[in-house]
Amino acid sequence: MSEVNKVEITCAVNGEERVLHAYPMARLLDALREELRLTGTKEGCGEGECGACSVLINGEIVNSCLVPVAQVAGAEIKTIEGIANDQKLHAVQEAFIQHGGAQCGICTPGMVIAAINLLEKTEKPTEAEIRDGLAGNLCRCTGYMKIFEAVVRACQEEDVKV
């Protein structure tokens, strides 16, 4: 395909207006990683099964490997790079570090996005709600307990700001 078939798509990524030049059916995952160089969003399976590529679009968690870039015109997208605030890590990110919730790092961005999405929707989630909130994310390195513990600890923090 030639460059002529590419379209301009304007959206906000991590609070900044961006213009993407991509084929309409290109995956959002590829546009984020290749055009914007936001490589924190990972590709695990490429089929929407593992959650490694999770991002927030207009406040809803999605697998960016399944989203055609044309679909995000005018949308607000938040990637893992947009989670920290003024060089201060989010409480979920801190908890992952402090409680060993990250191993190889492939699933970590998606897990963090899923946990933050959960906290935005449920102020003090129960253990069952945490398990449900993380259910769309697969980890191949851990038995999930350290990830689960990190999210529980983040939920217990008094100053969790989402």
How would you characterize the overall build of this protein?
With 162 residues, the protein is of the alpha+beta class. The protein folds into 2 domains: 3-82, Ubiquitin-like (UB roll) (Roll); 91-156, DNA polymerase, domain 1. It contains 5 helices and 5 strands; from the N terminus they run ββαβββαααα. The protein has helices at residues 28-35, 91-98, 108-121, 127-134, 145-156; strands at residues 7-13, 16-22, 54-57, 60-63, 76-78. A 5-stranded mixed beta sheet has the order 2-1-5-3-4, with helices on both faces. α2 crosses α5 (145-156) and α3 crosses α4 (127-134). The longest helix has 14 residues, at 108-121. The radius of gyration is 16 Å and the shape is elongated. The protein starts with 6 loop residues before the first strand and ends in a 6-residue tail after the last helix.
